Structure formats: C-alpha cells, structure tokens
Amino acid sequence: MQHDIDTARSPALYRPAIGRPQQQQESVVTNSRIWTRKTPPFLLTAIAIMTASSAPAQQAPRPLYMAPQTPFQTMTLAEKVQRLCDEQEIRDLVSIYAHRAAHGVSMADLFTDDGAFVNRVPQAPTLEVRGRKALDAYYNGLPTTGNHPIPTIHNHLIAVSGHDATGISSIEVRISGNGPDRIGSGYYNDRYRKENGRWKFVLRDADFFHLTTIGQSSDAPPPKP
C-alpha cells in the first residue's frame, strides 16, 4: 500500500505512524504529517520552530484617534440611542473622577473589583495600583486638603462594544496647596466595563508628557514628595 511516504523505502525513523497500535503512537502532528516518537529530537525542534515562525504575528490595536469611526447612518435608531447613552455615561464617569480628585474625594468605587490605576510621569517610577484592596487603600488614603491635583479633561474619544469600552482623553493638571505648584499635561488610556447597569473603570492609565514645578524647566526632575 502506498502512502505519502513510501514505508517500504523510507528509513524507519521517518515513517508515519500509520497502522501502528494506539499505545505506540506518541507523535507530533505538523503540516498534516505525523512523526513518531522515534524522530530525532533535533528534527522535532526544527519542526516546532518552523511551525511557530509560520504563525501570523498579532498586531497591537490601533489607537482610537487612528481607528475608523462607525458612521451613524449605518445604525438603527435603537443602536444610535444606545451608543449615545453609553458614551454620555462614560463621559460622566470621567468627569466625576476629575471633580472628586479636585475636591479630595475617593474615586475607589468608580473602579471594578479587578480594576487598576497606572500613573506614568517622566523621570519618576511608574505607579501601579491593582485590585479592590489596593484601590481602596490608595484612593481612600489621598489627602482631602492641601496638595492634591486639579485636573481638566478634554478631547475624549470613546469606542463601545457591548458592555466593554475603551477611551482616550487629554489631561491638563495643576497641583497646588502645600509646597510648590506643579502643572502637567498628558493623556488617559482607559478601559471601561458596564456592571449592573453602571459603567466603571477597568483601567485608568495616565501617561504624562511632563509634570513641571512652576518656575522650573520642564526637563527638571519632579520634586520629592
């Protein structure tokens, strides 16, 4: 009987595992061929490398300001209403966060239990706060008076997909109170989730272009807390 590989002429090491007892067919499947456990390890390694290298590479998602927008005219009336409602609720969430920050009120309840806050400032360690316990400790421990941020949010883009959404917004912030005043600008990369009819942050990733003490060069390192 003839197969893809002539078992009568091919060396035993490269014979397909066809017609062998089940307990002996410990094999590797690649490119529609079955190679038995007798195949040399170096050949199996080469096969695995070639198979992995042929897999398509995953591309990073495009930022919202580069992604095509879904035109309203292609939506039904119900879809239009739902989209407008979701986007407005998310904008309200972002605005509430900013007002609470300015008034020294905790924002912990605006996050999902698996949520995270990340803050990136040039020439400073990245701050990461992840999970309900850490979020409660961080936001409930912020000062209610004195040196706290006064953020202004604008240029908000939102993309909604069911009960999940992403967003990007610009931030201009002034930190004043006890100590020197600072100003900064950057953007938030956000992920949101609708839980029990309420939109919340899954991720608030703040990335600052600069955070400068007033009267200093923007290249100067941030002041020590």
Primary descriptors:
about 35% strand; about 220 residues; six-stranded mixed beta sheet; globular; alpha+beta; 8 strands; Nuclear Transport Factor 2, Chain: A; two-stranded antiparallel sheet; 2 domains
Fold blueprint:
Elements: E1 27-30, E2 33-36, H1 41-53, H2 77-103, E3 111-120, E4 127-130, H3 132-140, E5 148-161, E6 164-176, E7 182-195, E8 198-213
Parallel strand pairs: 3-8
Antiparallel strand pairs: 1-2, 3-4, 5-6, 6-7, 7-8
In summary, what is this structure?
With 225 residues, the chain is of the alpha+beta class. The protein has helices spanning 41-53, 77-103, 132-140; strands at residues 27-30, 33-36, 111-120, 127-130, 148-161, 164-176, 182-195, 198-213. The strands form two sheets. A six-stranded mixed β-sheet has the order 4-3-8-7-6-5, covered by helices on one side.
- Main sheet: strands, sense, barrel: 6 strands, mixed
Q: Which geometry do the CA atoms define? A: globular
- List SSEs in N-to-C order: EEHHEEHEEEE
CATH topology of the largest domain: Nuclear Transport Factor 2, Chain: A
Low-confidence residue ranges: 1-35
Give a verbal description of the structure.
This protein has 225 residues and is α+β, with helices and mostly antiparallel strands. The protein has two domains: 1-61, no CATH class; 75-213, Nuclear Transport Factor 2, Chain: A (Roll). The chain is built from three helices and eight strands, in the order E-E-H-H-E-E-H-E-E-E-E. The protein has helices spanning 41-53, 77-103, 132-140, and strands spanning 27-30, 33-36, 111-120, 127-130, 148-161, 164-176, 182-195, 198-213. The strands form two sheets. A six-stranded mixed β-sheet has the order 4-3-8-7-6-5, covered by helices on one side. A two-stranded antiparallel ribbon has the order 1-2. A hairpin with a 6-residue loop joins strand 3 (111-120) and strand 4 (127-130). The longest helix has 27 residues, at 77-103. The chain is globular. The termini are far apart. The model is unreliable at 1-35 (pLDDT under 50).
